[in-house]
Amino acid sequence: MKKLLPAAIIIGLLSLRTPGLFAQESEGHSTSGHSTEAEHETNPLWKWVNLLVLIGGIGFLLRKPATEFFETRKKDITNGLDRARIAQEESNRRMAEIEKRLSRLSQEIAALRTQADTDSARERENILAEAKNEMQRLVDQSRQEVDRIARGIERDIKGKIADAVIDRAGRTLETQMTEDDQKRVVVRFLNKV
Q: With b meaning 16 or more CB within 10 Å and e meaning fewer, what string describes 154-180?
């Protein structure tokens, strides 16, 4: 009801004509009907008054919806700016976090390279030490084998020499010595060997 009242007032004002014109209209009907209408339509003051009343009425009617529209639009724009600011802060935070991770990643890669170099040097030293130990073990084992073989050969040689000496001594003794002499020489020789 309240919204219809301003509309009715505006329509009423637009349909109103000035009092002088009403008087001329009634006279014009009695004398000449067409001259007053033409004067009323060409009167520039009346056109401006009508235009001002029309603009004022439209402004009055649209004041509340326009205010609501602009307030809503202002809130939407403000909310959009707030969301954009929050999104910008979030992206800045994420970018800083990514840059921090990248710097840490570079440090971690450098640390891993250093660790790998240290580990490879240690492993190389371990391999060399194991190789030296294995080589020493093989050398020791070879020496023991050579010593064992040398002792065996020495025993064989001593045995063969002893046999040869005994045979020779035996032959020599047989020709020059008596049997008792031969036994004493053999015993003495065996004691020496």
A: eeeeeeeeeeebbeebeeebeeeeeee
What pTM does this model have?
0.35
Mean pLDDT, rounded, for 127-147: 90
pLDDT of 54-100, one tens digit each?
888 888 888 888 889 899 999 999 999 999 999 999 999 999 998 88
Residue 18, SS3 per DSSP: coil
C-beta neighbour count of 11 within 10 angstroms = 11
How many Å apart are CA 162 and CA 190, to the nearest integer?
Answer: 8
Run of H or E including 91: helix 44-176
Distances (CA, A) of 145 to 43, 78, 130, 153, 160: 142, 97, 22, 12, 22
Q: What is the DSSP string of 114-133?
A: HHHHHHHHHHHHHHHHHHHH
User: CA 54, CA 67: separation in Å to the nearest integer?
Assistant: 19
pLDDT in the model for residue 73 = 93
Q: Is the pLDDT of residue 117 over 70?
A: yes
* C-alpha to C-alpha distance for 82 and 99, rounded to whole angstroms: 25
For 71-94, letters b (16+ CB in 10 Å) and e give eeeeeeeeeeeeeeeeeeeeeeee
